[in-house]
Amino acid sequence: MADSEREKELKAFDETKLGVKGLVDAGITKVPRIFYQPPDNTKIASESEDTKNYAIPVIDLANIHQDPCARKRVVESVRDASETFGFFQIVNHGIPVSILNQMKDGVLNFFEQDNEVKKEYYTREPKSFMYYSNIKLYTTTPATWKDSFLCNMAPVPPKPEDLPIVCRDILLKYFNQVKKLGNILFELLSEALGLNPSYLRDYGCADGLYAFGHYYPACPEPELTLGAVKHADVVFMTLLLQDHVGGLQILHKDMWIDVPPVDEALIVNIGDFIQLITNDKFKSVYHRVVANLGAPRVSIASFFGTIYHESTRKFGPIKELLSEENPAKYRETSISEFVVRYTNKSADGTSPLMHYRI
């Protein structure tokens, strides 16, 4: 596909302000070329005979505040999952099921509302709330089969009037819960590292919070494209709420592993900055979302990091974790510098971590 032709198609797609959902609503039966992804020959665990060894851990947080034994078991499970998979699911996390369901409905309602109302939020200029399709649409990489909104929640919360009416109340309610749960998870991760429970929170890991609401329309040719390309998260930690449709996969031992929906669960994944400050003890892993032929999929990913609030603060391997036998493997960097490198040098989703190796 010639560059001039591709640019013309990208511009025409972007100017509709209707995203991928607009293509599906128009009744397309073929995936446009701008969405074609190169083939991936990596094995998929679900197609293997030995699937039981590739199950993402599900950790029950019940009674961690009342029962020291339960908390110890959870901390051990969190440590093992963070070292082995970089991903785990949590149940009995404290966020009411009603709020989880309302949040999924809120994402769905935003993307399925009247087009003229939704288009008012379509932008590529930084705002407290942005709706768009493919944040890197005009780069050299293929577009992905999803539409998104971005909402900055902390350290500077949005003005309620800047949020869409259709999901305003539940966004504010849900993220109030997410911030509390994030603090608990950083306590558990701190303890799993042998540190004081407040260590990661005091270190600044919970200072920033922003979220992406994703809508993955049903795709007529899912084998040709992806909902999200292979990438790692350039944050400290991600908390993901997904619906029942599925499609999320992580890369583990050179194999794609499904992260199946679990009722009332949330997914936790370790970000690049946790891997950096823990000196590789906890792993940030690549993940992706495959396109699907059936119903549309929605998710909301809450990212703990200050990507959208520039800071010169430097982060490096935690000194308490270092020794002669375990010297620092990374040099210090700011989140802003890390993200700029990711944006400018990692168009294919490659993590910048290796660039900071000593």
Query: Which outline best applies?
Result: globular
User: Helix fraction?
Assistant: 25-40%
Number of strands: 15
Instruction: Tell me the Rg in angstroms.
Output: 20 Å
Reading side by side through the largest sheet, how are the strands ordered?
2-3-11-8-13-6-5-4
* Low-confidence spans: none
Strand content: 15-25%
The number of helical segments is 9
Structural class: alpha+beta
Order of helices and strands: HHEEHEHHEEHHEEEEEEHEEEEH
Query: Roughly how many Å apart are the termini?
Result: 40 Å
Q: What is the mean pLDDT?
A: 94
Largest sheet: 8 strands, mixed
Your description of this structure?
With 358 residues, the chain is α+β, with helices and mostly antiparallel strands. It is built from nine helices and 15 strands. An eight-stranded mixed β-sheet has the order 2-3-11-8-13-6-5-4. Strands 1-10-9-12-7 form a five-stranded mixed β-sheet, with no helix packed on it. Strand 2, helix 3 and strand 3 form a beta-alpha-beta unit. Helix 3 packs across helix 6 (168-192) and helix 4 (97-111) packs across helix 6. The model has no long low-confidence stretch (mean pLDDT 94).
